[in-house]
Write a structure and sequence with these properties.
alpha+beta; 9% strand; four-stranded mixed sheet
């Protein structure tokens, strides 16, 4: 395990804001992100977790914290994990535990969890496929969304289902060179942090394969992008 100094919380938040502004909003990957960003309704929570169990506990805290606030003050939360689950398959497996947390807290239909990762990969794609970058962020991230806010956003956008395909086409036209020119990578690479990236013990077995593509609007709508997990 590395003993290198981890990036500060301020650096992590700055990196995520830059990614949001230049990629998600700048490329219009999500037409609904600009409003909550401009209004200051996004809560950035940087996790100190060094293992999956600690991240699960913070997820519970952040879910409770989101629902304790009015949407006008905190409409959505980005739970950022710069020190854990750097391996995408471990992160992908953890998403099943995140869904179990929602069920146990009886929050299905109230909150939805979307996911981002520096090495995100859709099922059936190569790691360097540019379309994977719709869900790539500087650090592993769980996006906690209010279902009511998703419903309002989708209702206000008459062709929400077309956003996913448009994003794929736009990224293919942009290419890797165009993406790299945005400058949205992590300032301090997460692998410099103290890490524990062994297979996730909360997943109840080997990690699932790469996430499966589904029509999803980054930062707004749909189930997490992987095969569903059963309750343990």
């Amino acid at each position: 395990m590395s003993t290198a100094v981890a990036p500060s919380d301020a650096t992590v938040v700055d990196d995520m804001r830059r990614w949001l502004e230049r990629a998600v909003i700048g490329l219009n990957l999500c037409p609904f992100a600009k409003a909550v960003h401009t209004k200051g309704q996004i809560h950035y929570a940087v996790s100190p977790a060094l293992d999956a169990e600690a991240l699960r506990e913070q997820l519970i805290e952040e879910l409770n914290g989101l629902l304790a606030q009015e949407p006008s003050a905190r409409d959505t939360t980005l739970l950022i994990a710069p020190r854990v689950l750097q391996d995408f398959l471990d992160f992908n497996a953890f998403l099943g535990e995140a869904d179990r947390v929602l069920r146990r807290m009886r929050l299905e239909g109230t909150v939805q969890i979307a996911s981002f990762h520096p090495n995100f990969q859709f099922g059936g794609t190569e790691p360097d496929d540019i379309t994977n970058y719709t869900n790539r962020a500087p650090y592993p991230c769980l996006h906690l969304l209010r279902e009511a806010s998703i419903d309002r956003a989708v209702a206000a956008f008459p062709e929400a289902e077309a956003i996913f395909e448009r994003n794929m086409e736009m990224l293919e036209a942009l290419g890797r060179v165009g993406w790299d020119s945005l400058g949205v990578a992590a300032t301090a690479h997460p692998q410099a942090c103290p890490l524990r990236v062994a297979a996730n013990p909360l997943a109840g077995g080997e990690p699932d394969g790469p996430a499966q593509p589904v029509p999803w609007v980054p930062g707004v709508a749909s189930e997490s992008l992987r095969s569903p997990h059963e309750d343990s």
